[in-house]
Write a structure and sequence with these properties.
The complex is a heterodimer of chains A (130) and B (442).
Chain A (H helix, E strand, L loop, with lengths): L1 E10 L2 H7 L6 H7 L1 E4 L1 H7 L6 E6 L2 E9 L8 E5 L23 E7 L8 H9 L1
Parallel strand pairs in A: 1-5, 2-4
Antiparallel strand pairs in A: 1-6, 2-5, 3-4, 3-6
Helix pairs in contact in A: 1-2
Chain B lengths: L5 E7 L11 E6 L4 E6 L3 H8 L12 E4 L2 E4 L2 H14 L3 E5 L5 H14 L2 E4 L6 H10 L6 H7 L2 E5 L3 H4 L3 H6 L15 E6 L4 H5 L2 E4 L5 H12 L8 E2 L2 E2 H13 L2 E6 L1 H4 L5 H14 L4 E6 L6 H12 L5 E2 L6 E2 L6 H6 L5 E5 L3 H4 L2 H8 L3 E5 L11 E4 L9 E4 L5 E4 L12 H15 L3
Parallel strand pairs in B: 6-7, 6-17, 8-9, 8-13, 9-10, 13-14, 17-18, 18-19
Antiparallel strand pairs in B: 1-2, 2-3, 4-5, 4-19, 7-15, 11-12, 15-16, 20-21
Helix pairs in contact in B: 2-17, 3-13, 3-17, 4-12, 9-10, 9-12
Classes of the chains: A alpha/beta (130), B alpha/beta (442).
Chain lengths: 130, 442
């Protein structure tokens, strides 16, 4: 299943903050930041279990992350990826000449990929290096 | 008699976020040189202290990349290689600095000037737009103690302190008792404006759900209503006219209001224009009552980086030394914009991890050129660096000064010895400066 016409926001979460202190290249960081938080009702339309990998696509790229149900809802039509390497695959790098990229407010779609592989931070970087 | 080896350090300043909590208690096993207990810290600050202990994630020796893998070398060799990369580069970038102390930051400025390089700190991808707006319209700010003692209306706009500044609500803005707010939480009214019903919003007395990317319209609708203009629409940015009028009444009638704002305003499309409007709103509110604002700064010493860069060069971030004197132009000399244009041909990253925090297109270009990483831990930046210079962690393994988000400088403490062969950021940069000068024949 898939959902279109979503808006992607990114930002800090406490788990992501904890993971980055000395654990950026570990699985802890994948669990903290390699995830996408989806509104409870939107999630029902995906017809999958929480934790199933999903592919998030924006005009700027795509990334595979684990799906989760948002605790900070309801926010129908909005998805949230914690700041970090996963979010940065799909954010808008354009700063509109002010220096700061547009990390929030990208149009996005998501698609359930049951056998999708969520990469860890270093594997994502390998992709950028190739 | 058994020799006691546990020492407790009191009133330690936490080097994690801009709140710079100064009441941590750290138990250190002096024999083992290990942090064994952390009290009073939030989840993240506590983790930072524990992860300073030796482990697979911490660098203890300088390293140089040989045939694709990092090999331990002597400090002399590593500094020589790093200086070589920097001197040979045509447009080197010096980036980071927000998670280290002020003395190291000022060495960074010195090195940038000698190299004629780009000098930038993490405000570039964070509160840079706030700095731009403050340069445009000024900022009515105050120290956090004033808010704690006086504020009866607290607004968090596009900021989620429960996650990003976990102890802010408890120490300064919400639950704490203040001189004129004796009943703590009950004496304050908390408003949260956010597109998501965040954990902070769930604590609020009033949650205003704004549409993503439409903060600018909402701020200006509030400004218009404040001036007595009748709003034409029934709804602005997803917020009903009634809610806007209620909020305006609340703002006008409070005794002392404060607006804390975060990435929700700086990272959305209108960037600095959002902040510009928000500051103007706060300024105009002072016609009716006392109202102030404070940006919720992320890295514990990003305020210090802005301050140190400013008193050295005149500018807070995005500085170019290529003409021999400092020039400032975010959008042109900001790290992400330079990397997107593939202008940077070598990077020195101090206490930061742009590979994790820059958009992928910028990271891709950063990896095309040599990287020198001054870093205590393994990160996606340092893992692929050409030279890794292992640093002692400021505020844990060395002293220094850091600026809280409200520009109050606090002295960081040293609670344990640096591990392995690590040196402080300041020492590393001083060695680099010396070597670069030698190579340039100065």
């Amino acid at each position: 299943m898939s959902l279109n016409n979503l808006i992607l926001l990114t930002g800090r979460t406490i788990n992501q903050g904890v993971a980055l202190e000395g654990g950026k290249t570990t699985k802890e960081n994948v669990r903290a930041a390699g995830i996408c938080m989806i509104d409870k009702d939107d999630f029902k339309n995906l017809d999958c279990l929480a934790g199933t990998p999903i592919k998030v696509t924006t005009d700027h790229g795509e990334v595979m992350v684990y799906s989760t149900i948002s605790e900070e809802g309801p926010h129908p039509g909005i998805i949230f990826i914690p700041m970090g390497p996963w979010a940065n695959q799909v954010v808008n790098p354009d700063s509109q000449s002010c220096g700061t990229p547009t990390y929030k407010g990208m149009k996005a779609s998501i698609e359930v990929v049951k056998d999708g592989k969520v990469l860890d931070a270093l594997q994502l970087m390998e992709l950028l290096r190739s | 008699m058994v020799e006691k080896s546990i020492k407790t350090f009191y009133d330690v300043v936490c080097p994690f976020c801009g709140t710079l909590c100064d009441d941590l208690e750290i138990d250190v096993d002096l024999k083992e040189n290990k942090v064994v207990e952390v009290r009073n810290g939030c989840q993240i600050g506590t983790k930072k202290y524990y992860s300073s202990n030796p482990g697979a994630h911490r660098y203890e020796k300088p390293m140089i990349k040989e045939n694709g893998t990092l090999k331990p070398v002597s400090w002399e060799e590593a500094i020589d290689k790093a200086a070589d990369i920097l001197v040979k580069a045509k447009r080197p970038l010096l980036y980071g600095f927000s998670s280290t102390e002020c003395e190291a930051q000022s060495r960074g400025v010195e090195l940038a000037e000698i190299l004629g390089s780009i000098l930038d700190n993490t405000a570039s991808v964070c509160h840079g737009p706030s700095l731009l707006a403050i340069q445009n319209v000024g900022a009515p700010i105050s120290t956090l103690g004033e808010f704690k003692n006086r504020a009866d209306l607290v607004i968090f706009w596009g900021s989620n302190p429960v996650h990003a500044h976990p102890r802010h609500l408890g120490r300064y803005s919400e639950f704490v008792r203040g001189y004129f707010r004796k009943d703590g939480r009950n004496d304050r009214y908390l408003v949260v404006v956010d597109p998501r019903n965040t954990h902070t919003a769930q604590l609020a007395d009033l949650y205003i759900k704004v549409n993503p990317d439409e903060d600018y319209e909402l701020v200006n609708a509030i400004r218009a209503a404040l001036r007595g203009v009748d709003i034409d629409d029934e709804e602005v940015s997803g917020v009903s006219k009634e809610d806007i009028m209620n909020l305006v009444d609340m703002m006008k009638s409070c005794k002392f209001g404060v607006l804390f704002f975060g990435m929700g305003l700086t990272h959305s499309k209108a960037h600095h224009l959002n902040i510009d409007a928000a500051i103007s709103l706060v300024r105009e509110l002072n016609d009716h009552t006392k109202f102030l604002l404070t940006p919720m700064r992320g890295h514990y010493n990003v305020t210090g980086a802005n301050t140190v860069f400013t008193w050295n060069t005149g500018y807070a971030y995005s500085i170019d030394f290529s003409k021999g004197y400092p020039r400032y132009n975010p959008g042109e000399f900001s790290s992400v914009d330079l990397l997107l244009k593939n202008e940077v041909d070598a990077s020195l990253i101090v206490a930061s991890d742009p590979a994790s925090n820059f958009p992928a297109a910028a990271v891709k270009n950063m990896y095309k050129h040599p990287i020198i990483s001054v870093e205590p831990h393994e990160t996606p930046t340092s893992a692929f660096a050409d030279v890794v210079l292992p640093a002692a962690i400021a505020g844990i393994e060395c002293e220094g000064t850091a600026y809280r988000m409200d520009h109050v400088p606090l002295r960081l403490r040293k609670v344990k010895e640096p591990i392995g062969e690590t040196l402080t950021d300041k020492e590393i940069l001083e060695r680099l400066i010396k070597k670069v000068k030698e190579k340039k024949g100065e």
